[in-house]
Amino acid sequence: MLSASANKLSRLKEQAEEYAALIMEELDPEGLGYIELWQLETLLLQKDTYLNYSQALSYTSQALSQNLQGLRKKNRIKRMSTEFVYYLQENWRRLWVLSLWILIMIGLFTWKFFQYKHKDAFHVMGYCLLTAKGAAETLKFNMALILLPVCRNTITWLRSTRLGFFVPFDDNINFHKTIAAAIVVGVILHVGNHLACDFPRLISSSENDYHRYLSSSFGKHKPTYWDLVKGAEGITGILMVIFMAIAFILATRWFRRNLIKLPKPFDRLTGFNAFWYSHHLFVIVYILLIVHGILLFLVHKWYLKTTWMYLAVPVLAYAGERTLRFFRSGFSTVRLLKVAIYPGNVLTLQMSRPPQFRYKSGQYMFVQCPAVSPFEWHPFSITSAPGDDYLSVHIRQLGDWTQELKRVFSEACEPPVAGKSGLLRADETTKKSLPKLLIDGPYGAPAQDYRNYDVLLLVGLGIGATPFISILKDLLNNIVKQEEQADSVSDFSRRSDNSVGSNDSNTNRVSPKRKKALKTTNAYFYWVTREQGSFDWFKGVMNEVAELDQRGVIEMHNYLTSVYEEGDARSALITMVQALNHAKNGVDIVSGTRVRTHFARPNWKKVLSKLSSKHCNARIGVFYCGAPVLAKELSKLCYEFNQKGSTKFEFHKEHF
């Protein structure tokens, strides 16, 4: 009980008597009713007997020397050149896209800068005007471009074409943020130069200069500073800046993820809801931008007012996307088949699969519950496999919307009957009616490309395991199909051999078609979680993999970080009982599944070292979903190991 309490294993604490009896059974086969201290010490010290069961991939000194050998022999210049070449190999897609984008902005700025240098207004307003107009041209371009990375349907389609090899579509949200940063710079240059430089120069100019250079654009009477600001051009510009500032600030990580705690009622300015609704201010911004572009001071011919030309195609494309989502989600009303609430505030929704909903493992979809909010859509990884006749998602309570969603479904759920998992459950037989649910998708994600790799390393932190559960199911389905096909081919061969000579026409029969063999030969799934109850979320999947994967294609490792690491005296008894129970019953005492649970955090360097030694010359896809801190560590390790040997690790992080 003390060991379970020290390691925050409440379930083991409840079963302490059962596991104490297991130790007695092991050490007291004669049934004396007691054991001596030396017997318990002997069992605890037999590390080779039970610690190997609980340990992850072994890390040999031979593998270490093998991996470090390459770095020892390289001098500084050669090492730097190797690192540079590797950097280009890893980032060439990002580099060429960013380079092209920056060159276009430089070109537009330069073109507009020199164009206005030949205008009369330059003689009064000087280089302030040129800078403002150059920045304005980049703003028009970026305000159009920023819509394209969030056209999710288009990107999902494009990533499956050949263009997906050249363009890093997985970085669409990062590129969206980068463009937003460029817009901020453009706004500062454009607005700052107008308000602080060329407007003051205009109102302070002499009457002769004004009538000679500017009267055709601003009228016979020289305007005051207030006249320039209160005009349609000034009002639309100021309103745009205000709305964009609100949307930009509330979209930052500190506000969107509730990292800033504000007093009531200002706390409503933080969280996803504030981000979501404030982003819709851009509908007004784009209307104001078109009006602002039409009412230009120094341009009078309509075909030279190019703002609408920049915006036309991207705005129509984005509007088309939103229209498609609206109608498709209306047709994709689903029937809820099962609802379960698990420890750790996780809600599982299993629903009917619309006939037109075709997806790949690793993709995600948007979910809306009108009972919670008729406007909000939230993305969740699909945890069912393409071969399943249903759709499922696992949703963890992390914000206002998910909290309310859990509350709404909890009211319709009941305590489970014997043999059913979850704290609360509901299905089609439940008396209470379940809330209506709408879905939209599927949408592309990095994990959907898992079939391109020889070996997979899937790493999920907590609820971050969700995109990989679908991949594991899909791999398992493929394994079972391949075995069934192999059996059918062998049966066909035997029947053909037995019938030779009796009927020659049998020789003309074509054997059953074999599907193209799956490229992936091995998959390693690492699930790291803080709570013991988390293992209930995917207990069925883990047991199914352990039972049906006879060839050992999939290797699963559960890690519970609340338990002291293996070898620590405080967890020694837990490790021992874990091994004894698995040997006797085939069940892990921590997860309640046939998959072993390791303690503390994985040593990722050891994991990658073992994989590089075991799978020489292989392309290993490293897919990660979880906190950004570990993403940096894994990315850095992949970078290091790619320079050491023939095994190539390609790192991918999930983005929504």
Strand order of the largest sheet: 12-11-10-9-13-14
Principal-axis shape equals elongated
**Average pLDDT reading:** 81
Per DSSP, the total helix count is: 26
Largest sheet entry: 6 strands, parallel
Main attributes?
656 residues; alpha/beta; four-stranded antiparallel beta sheet; Respiratory burst oxidase
Helix-strand layout with pairing:
Layout: H1 2-6, H2 10-14, H3 16-27, H4 37-45, H5 47-54, H6 61-73, H7 76-117, H8 122-125, H9 127-145, H10 152-158, H11 163-166, H12 172-203, H13 207-213, H14 215-218, H15 225-230, H16 232-251, H17 253-256, H18 272-279, H19 282-294, H20 307-331, E1 333-334, E2 336-342, E3 346-352, E4 364-368, E5 378-381, E6 390-396, H21 400-412, E7 424-427, E8 437-443, E9 455-461, H22 466-498, E10 522-529, H23 539-548, E11 554-560, H24 569-585, E12 597-599, H25 604-614, E13 619-625, H26 628-642, E14 648-653
Helix pairs in contact: 5-24, 7-9, 9-12, 9-20, 16-18, 16-19, 25-26
